Amino acid sequence: SLYVSEYFSQSAQKLSFYSWYGNAKLFHFHVPEDTVLLRWLLQASRGKGPECTSMEITVHFRHGAPPVINPLGTRFPANATVRPSYNISITLSSAVQNTTFVNVTTPAAGDWFIAAHLPEAAGRIEVKGFSTPCPYMFQADMFVLRLTDMPVLEPGVPMPHTVVSPAKPLHVKVFVPKHAAGMRFQLRSCVTSEQRPCTVRVLLGSITLPQSFQRILTCTGNTNCSLALDSPPWEKWLQITVESLGTANASVSVEMLASFTVCRPGSTSSFLSFISLNQSHAGARPAAAGSSALSAGEASGNTSDQRSSCLQSQPVVREDLDVVSVRYRLLNGPSVPVSSLSPTLLLLNLNTGMDSGGSLVVNLLLNKTSVSLANATVVACVSAASPVLSLNATRNCSTAFSQGYPLSVSTSSVEAMLIVLYPQTDDWFLSLQLLCPQGQGDCTSAEAKVTVFAYLTPCFNDCGPYGQCSLLRRHGYLYAACSCKAGWGGWSCTDDTKAQSIGAQNLATLLLTLSNVMFLPAIAVAVYRYYLVEASVYTYTMFFSTFYHACDQPGVAVMCIMDYDTLQYCDFLGSVVSIWVTILCMARLKKILKYVLFVLGTLLIAMSLQLDRRGVWNMMGPCLFALVIMVTAWVHHGAKRRHCYPSSWKRWVFYLLPGITLAFIAISVYAFMETNENYYYTHSIWHVLVACSVAFLLPPRDKHKKPWAWSQKLTCRYQICQNDREELYAVT
């Protein structure tokens, strides 16, 4: 046998602390066919600074779709089925780097996903630039060992083969045809080279994570051994591995045989059903001449046709709506007939490779009037790769290599819903069959009508009123996740364990908005002291800060008067410009110079905020530059007057020192005390402290100006005119 090794790598990603699925870093790989060994090389590293501490990285694996994880232990939606992901932990302690290998023998071909993240986020709101977070990097590489000439086992044809040694297992594959109801594998004529009892182990199927349904068959002696599989995966290659359990130097000769039981579908899936794609479903449609196809009503009523077929397939149209958004439409109407003779089958195509990043929703609604037997139950099963064709026998919703998702409706419970989170890339099937109680009426002639609604959505229920559905991207792969707010959690933001009440949401909105009213004293002081430009800036800041926080609320108490991004930009701009004009006003510059600096500084601040709104130097830079100007001006004034400036001790004790103290406390609260839980009152304290500090720091008015002197200047033109008249009268 010829083996070929291949290597696949992706760039490293910086890990984040986990608060929602968007914090998990996703890696997407494709495993080729005939792979016999898969090895993951996981490399984790951290920075060397003092802020870097020991950290545990969690890595999740899944075949076919991104892993469904729940690090926070929150609740999933009521009708969602969740199977835990396979995960490992990588610890970064004293070592700066950690390398881990994960091996998977005979892995399933197709898409494989890895998700990595750090522990739960602390919830602290860090100002960009005040602290340097430790970088934790993670990179995943994939090695595969592929067999280039894997022998093909033809159905119904015995194939002799030899297992050379226990160290070299035999790999063969067989193709499973469509509509295969069962498969029977036989191993016979087992002979060893040393004429000893033959002992071999046969592995059927490939390994998938988080759950693997690989079937194991152990054969001992010369007797024939066999294994029967129900519902093998349709139109796929099934890998078979034969391992010798004998001595190291002994070879084993075996003969393998695979046979299939094929299911003949009913006539409702014939070409005639597709003729009605754009036609009305009302009334009966005549069958084509010479054709054995029947309409939906005739097919459901033809008992002989149902007896001769093992399933009744209903035609389904896949309608792509948007990214990760698909609707399935039944050609014969939303209601499908379900009988007890054979299951009704619907194909839900999810094999494009871009459908696994959403949620598959299946809703069943039973028409009570269509059920002829009172206690009859319609059982259903949603499964991938192959349908379940024996619902009436075992009621076990499982196929040869996977476990499906069961559903049921009856006259006592007419509706059922199933939510499959991140469904794996494959053909999905919905099987329905009617089950009747024993000894109650003629079940063969009974029938039920079930309305089926099936669709693929990025986020179930659009994450509800307390969540936001975000479309995430990793290279060319798109997937969706919910970002919850107002204390809500869970996959679809349905977990209200830590949710804020409506009263708490209203209180948070009122605190964050009404705390801006504290700018009114600063505005009044500025107007009283004839600082009209500064008062205009404070009014602008108060207005946009109020309505930005009214729009920024996570709950239902939200009011947006304009676009959120515009409100945020105006709020940040007003805050920084308010600090800029206040410090320059304290510098006591000449008016022309002061107003030039006002305009020039505002333009530069607007530019810097457009580049990075949350950068700490967007606020600290203008503040420090304005402080340099103020200190320089004060030194100049002091040297010119030959004494300290400001000269009045009352100005220092009752105005400057309280204002500076309030400003430092505000900066400390803003930079070091805000968290997601206390944001609404710590940020409100920031509003109050900043507004009060501005009122204290504004310098007194010029001595030659009287209070409200600007109102007397409004009559200046009238006085001039009156004087001119008197002067002219005196001349004449």
TrEMBL record:
Belongs to the TMEM8 family. Disulfide bonds join 459-469, 484-493. This is TMM8A factor. It comes from Ptilonorhynchus violaceus (Satin bowerbird). Residues 293-313 are annotated as: Disordered. It is a multi-pass membrane protein. Keywords: Cell membrane, Disulfide bond, EGF-like domain, Membrane, Transmembrane, Transmembrane helix. The gene is Tmem8a. The keyword Transmembrane applies. Residues 302-313 have a biased composition (Polar residues). InterPro entries: EGF, NGX6/PGAP6/MYMK. GO terms for cellular component: plasma membrane. Residues 455-494 form the EGF-like domain.
